[in-house]
Protein: diguanylate cyclase
Organism: Pseudoalteromonas arctica
Amino acid sequence: MTKKNVNKPNWLSLINIDSVYSSDMQRKAFSLFTMIGISIVVIAVLVFLNYKVYSPILTASLIIVNITNISCSIYFIRTGNLQVVALISMSIVCMMFVALVYTGGKDNTALYWLMFYPVVTFASLGVRLGAWLGFTLLFSCIVILYGPDFGQVSYGDVEKTRFIASFSMVFLFSFIGEYFRHKSHMAIADITLEQKQDAYTDPLTGIANRRFITSHFLKLAQTRPEQYLPFSILLIDLDNFKSLNDTHGHDFGDTVLIEFTKLLESQFLATALKARYGGEEFVVILPQVTVATATVIANKFREAVAGHVIFTDDKQRISITCSIGISQVNKVTDYDDSLKQADEALYSAKAAGRNSVVSN
Ligand SMILES: Nc1nc2c(ncn2[C@@H]2O[C@H](COP(=O)(O)OP(=O)(O)OP(=O)(O)O)[C@@H](O)[C@H]2O)c(=O)[nH]1
């Protein structure tokens, strides 16, 4: 059976791969808060032990860094906004390092503390922002180390060149690592989404399949009841489809199923969920629609189907009809029972002579 997508895939937007993104978010948060935790402890100890040795400007900036880091952690716990917290924290740490290099720290050992900065910045902020902040720190260090005298401490020539060389290497390899990690992560995310969408798509008609409703949609309705409940189920079955297949061939039967799907898409609103349940049976879910309104909508659709003409390859005009059973779902846990009721209603519609709508 060839894949013939005939539908606007608006229902596909309901499929997500949040678990893939949330594990990446955990990685970023873990890198950032490990750094924040370590820096809070190290800075507190350094200030406590060396406040007499440090210049006032260095002591003040270290205290500001710690206050900012603690505030950022509280803000993250309250809002979950990791990107903002990471940007503020890493910018403040960058400024602190500039102040540290400017003043030299204890025994002019400032440069040793900077090495981990590119690694954490790329891990917590990604390629672009990581590159900007890492480059800002590198550039500031070059100005302080090699620029004109504006009050900064002086470092030995060997120490300066070794620092710039090793910091640049860490920066470069952190950039390469993060760039390709991000690229492969996005590729995996795309494949995961595509596979999930494929698993939920009916290959012939391109609309959702039964698995989409039972494995995905019901969970969605459970988590966002205000958006979907109560909803009506329309169980729709083409009439005498076997004889159509027998008379005009299986390929023409497929064409009818595709044409019928086009009618589903054009006659129901985009918010209605249309799925092929199997064979010549379809389900339409009308969110926030009661059974009474659904019956009116279903009758209009039934008339549209009956009035639609499909041409065979040899230009014969073929009309089809459908029977519809309807029920209402008030709680997601009632879905199976309501589907059974819709099935019974459909059976009654067939028994009543087909091309009719029965609600339960
Ligand atoms: N062309 C085509 N036919 C299919 C497909 N899936 C199921 N069918 C056919 O659909 C027909 C369903 O037949 P029945 O269940 O007897 O239903 P019906 O002939 O529509 O009769 P009523 O439902 O009672 O009106 C069978 O002949 C199946 O082979 C498909 O993907 N393509």
Q: What stands out?
A: DSSP finds eleven helices and eight strands in the chain.
